[in-house]
Structures are given as structure tokens and as C-alpha cells.
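chain below, 477 aa
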Amino acid sequence: MGSIKRNKVGYEGSSMMATRGRFAGRYRPKSAGRAIAARPMSRGESPVLQQDTVRDIANQARIRNIEIERRARQIANQLIAQRERARLAARNGRIFTEFDLDTDVIPNQQEIVTRGLWPNNIGNQTNFYTSSLMSATQKRYYIELWNGENRTGAGANYDITSSAMLSIAWGHVNGSGSADEGGQVNDTPSRAIYSQYRLLCLEPDDKKFTVNGVDQDHMYFFNINRALLRERLDEGNIEICIAELSGSKFGAGPGQANRSNTSSAHGVRPVNQGNAGDLTENPVIRLVDDSKATSAISVRRGHFGRRYNMVSGSIEQGIYNKTNPVHYGLLYPDLGVIAVSGDAMNVSASFNVVTGSEIPGDNEMKMFTAISHSGALLTDLSGDKLGFQARSSEKVTSTHYFVRATNAEYNFSNNPTFTTGSNGRFAQASFIGDPKVYMTTIGMYNDRRELLAVAKLSKPLLKSFTREALIKVKLDF
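prediction:
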């Protein structure tokens, strides 16, 4: 009996150990829809479980492919139905046509648009007037030039349509050539003008304007009216004509320091007494920028635009002596500022600029006299007056819309004269089977069919079943 009991215990012990060996550890059933990656079978794992995992992955991939194919067929059917509706609408006539953004719309098109800088799109201004509306304090700093008489009052000599074009200022780095209110040389209008344009145009560590490598103590500044400037001056289309003044009118002979002359009766040299090298034989100097010969120099590390040189030349003939041009000043097209050396005006145009301390030199009036006389009296080789030529420039962003009207579209009109009678018969019997209309206007609508813009054709365009139309509408921003 003892032997039989031991065998029973031994059998039961072996059975329990086998059970623990197969199901030992924590068991987690697979959740629905959860993908389980196939892995090598571990010790004690059944091959049946690994096969089930691979089969589940394959079934899920097959289901995804079926869903993708179903969705693709649905989108294709929608496109086909949409095109069919468009075809039927075109055959039966329609009022609106939706733009295809891929083929009918070209956005973000940029182009440079230029126009005459001066009022009424004038490119060469020859008439210059000072403003009597300026106060005495303002005139100590600058003078404002208009294209017509703007004085208060009535009469034929007053132009109520005139407007301001530009201002002329003169500045000295040390404040000379002008007087202050209390005897302080360091606080004069000329010093304020020079400092203002230095801060506006030069690098932060640059204290003086430099023309052709030479520092300038005093400069003339032309500041274009912002409303006329638009975005910037159009470099390469700028020419300033400055008549030479008569040095004998100022009481200072050649070589004498001009420190006290304050005369505002600035005369000009007679015609045909110009320099021998002047092609026009007129006593005038003509300044253009050198943008067509050199690259621009960045101003203030590129933050405030570009800079070119103002040299001797003309728009018609280009730069005089391109290898060694005569430099007169600087052009800042993005700022609408032109700076001209006062020393250069003394040498080439007999300005005799006043540079004495505490003396109101009235230097701005000399420049006004010089440019106003050149526009009024002098002409170039073509007979054109030598005024102030300039153009403005701006970058315009536009979107192009291509409006397409096929032969079967837009051949009818809602105009009451198109039909007659209560039954809607054609007013013209010839329209039966062959109607004809004239397109004059294109309306652009949003998705709610609200009118946003209207494009007018230059002339009516005939439309019929035998004629198609393709019209480009450009919308500028």
C-alpha cells in the first residue's frame, strides 16, 4: 500500500507541474481592432497564436485598401457629376461661372509701374512757384515749391488747383549761413537741417555727407512731396537742370570768400554764355543719377533703401564722360531725397553760397532761382525745356482672372428689349436659333453671389453660338 500511494502522489505532482509550465505568467487577451506585430515564438509559445496575429494584420490591411478604393470612387463620381452639371448648365445657359483656381486664376503677379512724378502725371516740370502761405519761421528752414500760384486772394493769376511739389533746404554742419534767435551758433536752422538729413540718410557713425570721397560741410536738399512720391523715385529717369547764376550780382569776385552776401535778387547768366564744353551752349548744368552705370549702395545697412550718385549728364545723352564723371551730389530714391553739394554749386553754377556765422544767407532762394530759370528760359537739343524731370515708381501686386465664355454660354440677355410680349418671344425674329448679344461688363462675385468688383470692356464684344470669348481681368492691390 505504501508503494501504490507513492505512485499516485508522483503522478499528481507531475500533472500540476506541467499545468504551471504551460500557463505560467500573466495572460492578456487581444482587443478588437488592435494590431499586434508578429514576433519570434518564445519558448513554450504555441505556433497557432503567431499564425493568428499575422492573419489579423493582413485582414486589417485589406480593409484599409477597400476603404481607400471606395473613397476614391466616391470623389471621382462627384467630379463627374459636377462636370456633367456644368455641361448641362452651359448647354441650357447660365448666369454665373465659377473660377477654376488651377487654370483661371493667377495670383501674386508683381510689376513695376512708373508715372510722371509731378501733379497731373507730368514728367518734366518747368513752372515753379514759392508759397506765400509759409510763415516767416518756416522760411528760415526751407522753401516749398508749388506748380502754380497759391497765394490767398482772388484773380486770374491765382491757381486754386495748384499743389505742393517739393521743398528745398540748405544745411551746414556747423550751423553757418543762418541766424538763430539768441546768438547761439550751435542752434541755427542750417545746423538743424544738416543734422536732420544726416540722421535720415547716413550711417549712424557717419557725421558728414560725402560726395566722390570728399566730405561736405554744406548741402542742398530736395525733398519730394510724399503724396507724389508714391513708393520711390524711378532711378534712371531723374534730371535736374540748374541755371548758372551771375557772380557779378553778388558783389564777390573770383577767389573771394562769400561770407556776407544775403541778396535774394539772384540773377542768371544770359543764354548762349555757357561753358564751351556744354553741348547746348546754355549756361546750365544738368544732373542725372548714375544708376545705369553703377550698382546701388545700401543705406543704413539696407534698412532705409539705396543710394546713387548725382553726376553731370542728361536723360537723352546719358552720363557725360562715364569713365570720369563730375560728381555733384547723392540720390536716395527710396526716401525721395536728393542732396547736392553746396561747394559744387559754387564752382559750377556761381552760387556764392553764404557760409558766414550768424548771417541769414537766403541760400535756398538761390537754388529756387536756378531751377526755375532753367525751366522757363532754356531748352535742350530737341527743343524741350530744361525743367526738373522725374518719375515715381511703385511695385503693384495683382491677380489675373481669365473669364471664359464658350460658344454655348451667355448668348441670351435679361434686358427687357431682348424679348417682347407676355410669352417671352424674341424681339428680333432672326434671334430664333441664332441669338446675338454684346458683352460690355463682367461682374465678379463671392460665394454668396454678392457683387465685389466690376470690369468694363473697352468696347462691346459680340457673343453668339459661333463665337467664344476669353477676357483677362487684372485686379490690382
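Confidence is low (pLDDT under 50) at residues 1-28, 30-38, 248-265, 271-280. The chain has seven helices and 23 strands.
thats it, cya
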